[in-house]
Amino acid sequence: MSTQSPYELSREHEEFRRTVRAFAEAEIAPHAAQWDREHHFPVDVVQKMGALGLFGLTAPEEYGGAGEDGDFTSLCVAIEEIGRVDQSMGITLEAAVGLGINPILTYGTDEQKQTWLPDLVAGERLAGFGLTEPGAGSDAGATRTKAVVENGEWVVNGAKQFITNSGSDITSLVTVTARTGEREGGRPEISTIMVPSDTPGFTAEKAYDKLGWHASDTHPLTFVDARVPEANLLGERGRGYAQFLATLDDGRVAIAALAVGCIQACLDMSLEYAGERQTFGGPIGRKQGVAFQVADLEVMLHASRLLTYKAAAMKDGGAPMKEFKQAAAVAKLYATESAVTATRIATQVFGGYGFMEEYPVARFYRDAKVLEIGEGTSEVQRMLIGRGLGLPVE
Asked: Model confidence over 85-95: pLDDT tens digits?
């Protein structure tokens, strides 16, 4: 009988971790600061990530994926390790798989999968997921983008914002949520439609000037009579809202993995600096005020990692959806809030140097805040957790 904990990574997962870490330290870490300064999205490195197989970890072999050799836990390991050196590249991977590939893999027809997945799984192309709008974020039911059928085509009009991987040189399509009718009582019928990047009337506007994630590709999108074939409907008409909720459940765990990478980076940097920085005749790490802060980082790291990989194991093990949703929300809430705290602690350990952009700790400080916002804010996670406990939370 195996004595391995259900949340302890397997030997294969740890070997995979070492492979991804070696890649991240060789191909990403030396350039991350420059990409951040220049707001540069490194297409060549994204494609190297694809060649390593990182975009195919949840995909079947028939589309070029890992098949039985991959799983959701492997994806979380990859996101954590990439995020440990650069959060921008970490979110690029997370969004490419969780928001780009997985909806097509889960809800697409055979033809849609054959058309889009091979290039996406190979990392040669990227796909975005257009959900958020100027007036509809967590309240996705307030979606204003509309799509109507005319002569066998969907005609899409509206706008989306904060959409990752939506306007890069290798973006092939964006899947968008849109109102396609009304239900009884006036509730909107929400469907998801795939819009290729070269569709006339579809524009990825100028990239955002963001607080963090400078090397990540993020754009507002506009649709003005953008016409796509009626066959570009993804999944069942009117099920777009349910599809997006399921997509975000997985995404929350993946974002938690990104947060774990951030906390690990903060611990690594703080340990090194506390051992080297000399004050009053010795390293600052001998002072309780510093040592206690570094100890807190260790505690947050272990707790966040366990919550994250517990949820990932539940996903891979086919746990009941209600239980998985609760575990995903708990992991996302705790890990992301811990990551924000960890970057504040690390910056404090570095003192004045932590405020200087020449040190990576400053970049991680800027990058961390959005973890509490993207793919469901902390407030939404608390609402979901409360509902999972049986409370009538509105």
From this structure: 999 999 999 99
